[in-house]
Amino acid sequence: MAFKAQLPVRLDPDTESRLEDVARRTGTTKSSLIRMLAKQFVDECVKPDGSVIFPASIQTAFEIRDARSVSQARREAKVSYKSKPKK
After folding, report:
1. Are 53 and 43 in contact (CB under 8 A)?
2. Nearest of 30, 6, 28 to residue 18 by alpha carbon
Protein backbone atom coordinates (compact mmCIF):
# COMPACT_ATOMS: atom_id res chain seq x y z
CA MET A 1 0.00 0.00 0.00
CA ALA A 2 1.37 3.40 -0.96
CA PHE A 3 0.97 6.17 1.57
CA LYS A 4 0.36 9.66 0.23
CA ALA A 5 0.00 12.00 3.18
CA GLN A 6 2.61 12.91 5.76
CA LEU A 7 1.31 14.15 9.06
CA PRO A 8 3.81 15.65 11.50
CA VAL A 9 2.80 14.83 15.05
CA ARG A 10 4.20 16.49 18.15
CA LEU A 11 4.41 14.29 21.23
CA ASP A 12 5.58 15.04 24.72
CA PRO A 13 8.82 13.20 25.60
CA ASP A 14 7.11 10.66 27.87
CA THR A 15 4.53 9.66 25.26
CA GLU A 16 7.17 9.44 22.54
CA SER A 17 9.35 7.24 24.74
CA ARG A 18 6.45 4.94 25.59
CA LEU A 19 5.42 4.74 21.92
CA GLU A 20 9.01 3.90 20.96
CA ASP A 21 9.03 1.14 23.59
CA VAL A 22 5.78 -0.36 22.28
CA ALA A 23 7.08 -0.21 18.71
CA ARG A 24 10.32 -1.93 19.69
CA ARG A 25 8.52 -4.65 21.68
CA THR A 26 6.05 -5.34 18.88
CA GLY A 27 8.62 -5.23 16.09
CA THR A 28 7.09 -2.30 14.26
CA THR A 29 7.64 1.43 13.92
CA LYS A 30 6.09 4.41 15.67
CA SER A 31 4.65 5.53 12.33
CA SER A 32 3.04 2.16 11.79
CA LEU A 33 1.50 2.21 15.26
CA ILE A 34 0.12 5.71 14.72
CA ARG A 35 -1.31 4.66 11.31
CA MET A 36 -3.02 1.64 12.91
CA LEU A 37 -4.43 3.74 15.76
CA ALA A 38 -5.67 6.46 13.38
CA LYS A 39 -7.42 3.89 11.19
CA GLN A 40 -8.98 2.18 14.21
CA PHE A 41 -10.13 5.53 15.58
CA VAL A 42 -11.77 6.59 12.31
CA ASP A 43 -13.35 3.15 11.80
CA GLU A 44 -14.84 3.13 15.30
CA CYS A 45 -15.69 6.79 15.91
CA VAL A 46 -16.95 8.04 12.54
CA LYS A 47 -20.48 6.80 12.01
CA PRO A 48 -22.06 6.09 8.59
CA ASP A 49 -23.97 9.38 8.74
CA GLY A 50 -20.68 11.27 9.20
CA SER A 51 -21.17 12.06 12.87
CA VAL A 52 -18.25 11.54 15.23
CA ILE A 53 -18.77 9.85 18.58
CA PHE A 54 -15.78 9.97 20.90
CA PRO A 55 -15.22 7.31 23.55
CA ALA A 56 -15.68 8.72 27.06
CA SER A 57 -11.93 8.75 27.76
CA ILE A 58 -11.22 10.91 24.73
CA GLN A 59 -14.19 13.19 25.42
CA THR A 60 -12.83 13.79 28.92
CA ALA A 61 -9.39 14.60 27.48
CA PHE A 62 -10.97 17.18 25.14
CA GLU A 63 -12.85 18.78 28.02
CA ILE A 64 -9.65 19.03 30.08
CA ARG A 65 -7.76 20.46 27.10
CA ASP A 66 -10.49 23.00 26.40
CA ALA A 67 -10.58 24.11 30.03
CA ARG A 68 -6.80 24.57 29.97
CA SER A 69 -7.02 26.50 26.69
CA VAL A 70 -9.55 28.90 28.19
CA SER A 71 -7.39 29.37 31.30
CA GLN A 72 -4.28 29.93 29.17
CA ALA A 73 -6.07 32.46 26.96
CA ARG A 74 -7.24 34.36 30.04
CA ARG A 75 -3.71 34.39 31.46
CA GLU A 76 -2.29 35.61 28.16
CA ALA A 77 -4.94 38.32 27.91
CA LYS A 78 -4.01 39.56 31.38
CA VAL A 79 -0.30 39.53 30.53
CA SER A 80 -0.82 41.41 27.30
CA TYR A 81 -3.11 43.90 28.96
CA LYS A 82 -0.61 44.52 31.74
CA SER A 83 2.32 44.74 29.36
CA LYS A 84 0.86 47.54 27.25
CA PRO A 85 2.90 50.72 27.65
CA LYS A 86 1.19 53.54 29.51
CA LYS A 87 0.59 56.75 27.60
Report:
1. no
2. 30
The backbone region for 77, taken as left when phi is positive above 0, alpha when psi lies in -120 to 50, beta otherwise, is: alpha
> From CA 87, how far away is CA 84, in angstroms rounded?
9
Cβ atoms < 10 Å from Cβ of 22:
12
Report how far Cα 20 is from the mean position of its chain's Cα atoms.
17
What do you get for the CA distance between the two ends of the chain, in Å? 63
What are 41-82's pLDDT values in tens digits?
Answer: 899 889 999 888 888 877 787 777 777 766 666 666 555 444
Any residues with CB less than 8 A from the CB of 53 and at least 6 apart, and which? 45, 47
Residue whose C-alpha is closest to residue 58's, from 43, 73, 70, 41: 41
Cβ(37)–Cβ(29) under 8 Å? Answer: no
Length of the chain: 87
